[in-house]
Amino acid sequence: MHRTLADDLSRLPELLSTARDLAVQELAGLAERPVVRLDKAPDPEALPGIGAGGEAALARFAERWAPGFSGSAGPRYLGFVTGGATPASVAGDWLTGAYDQNGSGAAGSWATALERETVGWLRELFGLGAAHSGAFVTGATTSNTVGLAIAREWLGERLGVSVSRDGTAALGRVEVLSGSPHSSIGKALSVLGIGRDRLRSVPVLPGNREAVDVAALDRALSELDGRPAIVVANAGTVNTVDFDDLRAIAALKERHDFWLHVDAAFGGFAALSPSYAALVDGLDAADSVCVDLHKWLNVPYDAAVQFTRRRDLQVAVFHNASPYLGLPVGEPDFVHLTPENSRRLRALPAWFSLVAYGREGHREIVERNVALARDLGERIAGLDGLRLLAPVRLNVVCFTLAEDPTRERVAELAHALAETGEVFVTPTVYDGTPGLRAAFSNWRTSADDVDRIIGAVTRVR
């Protein structure tokens, strides 16, 4: 064994203790850390020829790189939809690295069984029935891609071809219909060979809504003359967290032949609260579902889950035909269900957080975030120079300048907010108007943080 490796092994407890001390220090100061870093990163250095050892690497990281890391895990990072990491999930993530299990199959480890237990808990949490099976993937984009890959195979089944064997060309023209799809849907269609331009926009409801007009969707499906299609419904749109009427869309299956994929990346967490669960009524009727866990479950990156009613088609798409991996019979190994062969045990941080805080603890996070978002929305609506672009429906506040909201002026406002170090929000365009969106999904965020956010907004608007 190399001398430096051997030395690190002999001093492993001390090395891990030093890493723990650095993590504790950083997490303790997270609330006061600049939410984003806008200054220039260090220039790249040459690859070390002779290693310095673990302790020296930690010291170099702490001095050279740690100061430039953002406070994205903290309470006032409201960009995108970014959760933090609950204490229990951090512990689970550390142990994930320590155990270093390959979650691709059940041979020789209980890791796969733990993932199956965790998927079962999540299925229950989101109100899905036993017909839905699932697996962990890297994020919402991969979850959407897996769901649409299964949908693609279903189209082949309906048309009498096997896409997994014959390729997408065997399908001919594919129709994918949606009202306000996330950008990852187009990316998934590109990856799957269906094509971004096959995504057909269906009108949304009038009155400042992003939810699809179900009557318009009915007409669009009728125009296909019985040809099977894919419908992508939304349980929580990016800009305003609007929800399609999932039950009404599913009822259209009585007259039309389509696969229903629901993108519930963060909106699916509405199911945790009795006050908002009606928003996802009908989710169980979906053929495939995407949920992103490093958003509102507040587990470390990267973690998402996908569900489907057609595991047989999922195996047809993703099975790995190699004798050393085993055949996908009975309860198939995860290697036959997702794009990866090698799979980090992403389920472990989620398992830790669910055991530690349960349904009630995670419901409290959701309800607190929603209450804080509504508070911020009311306070922004009362400020001169700003206006809401849409009602605060759940956990996202979408707002803009009251006068002349050009892309440039709105971008200047976003940059000015970031420069305060107090808050980070991301730009968008809603109904043709440039704006900003503040998304609440972090377990740490409190009323005091809203005070600091509105203070920053007041100073720079």
UniProtKB/TrEMBL annotation:
Signal peptide: none annotated. GO terms for biological process: carboxylic acid metabolic process. Its cofactor is pyridoxal 5'-phosphate. GO terms for molecular function: aromatic-L-amino-acid decarboxylase activity; pyridoxal phosphate binding; transaminase activity. SUPFAM superfamilies: PLP-dependent transferases (SSF53383). Pfam families: Pyridoxal_deC. It comes from the Bacteria. The keyword Transferase applies. Keywords: Aminotransferase, Decarboxylase, Lyase, Pyridoxal phosphate, Transferase. Coiled coil: none annotated. This is Aspartate aminotransferase family protein. It comes from Streptomyces aquilus.
